[in-house]
Write a structure and sequence with these properties.
This protein is of the alpha+beta class and 148 residues long. Helix content is 29%, strand content 32%. The chain contains 3 helices and 7 strands, in the order αααβββββββ. The strands form 2 sheets. Strands 4-3-6-7 form a 4-stranded antiparallel beta sheet. β3 and β4 form a beta hairpin. It is elongated. InterPro entries: FixH. It comes from Salinimicrobium catena.
């Protein structure tokens, strides 16, 4: 059977549409292509961005900023020595870009200038560490990306 050029064009269009439908259905149902937003309240977070920049500026004006070091027990966060550790309040957020279930947030309540994040809370890979804290009347913010 011989196919003329009109039938060939119709078959090519049907093949193309079928291929596009296959891709759309595969992408929308496959879990490997499921991506979440970093935060559910994206617009609210964006509106607070200038306050975060001001807090980061406050932290940079300290004589020393927060330092993070890895140890055998876990992650040690060193707060500035010039501040009273009993007045440091806030929260620390550990964000894992590749797995939302590993994210954790905990409050800061210090008795010394060091905070230990136990090794069992961290798995190997990339982590974003966000520390939003206050000391006295000043607010500070610190963020760092590490590979643990």
């Amino acid at each position: 059977m011989k196919i003329n050029w009109g039938a060939g064009i119709v078959l090519a269009i049907i093949g193309f549409v079928s291929f596009i439908l296959f891709l759309v259905i595969t992408m929308s149902t496959d879990k490997a292509y499921s991506h979440d937003l970093v935060t559910e309240e994206y617009y609210k977070t964006e509106l607070e961005f200038q306050q975060q920049l001001n807090k980061e500026s406050n932290a940079q004006h300290l004589s020393e900023n927060i330092k993070i070091e890895k140890s055998s027990e876990g992650l040690i966060v060193h707060f500035p020595e010039e501040l009273d550790p009993s007045q440091i309040k806030g929260k620390m957020f550990l964000y894992r870009p590749s797995n939302k279930q590993l994210d954790s947030e905990f409050p800061l309540s210090l008795s010394s200038h060091q905070l230990l994040v136990p090794d069992n809370r961290l798995v190997g890979g990339r982590w974003n560490i966000l520390i939003d804290w206050t000391a006295g009347n000043e607010a500070y913010f610190y963020k760092e990306e590490i590979n643990y």
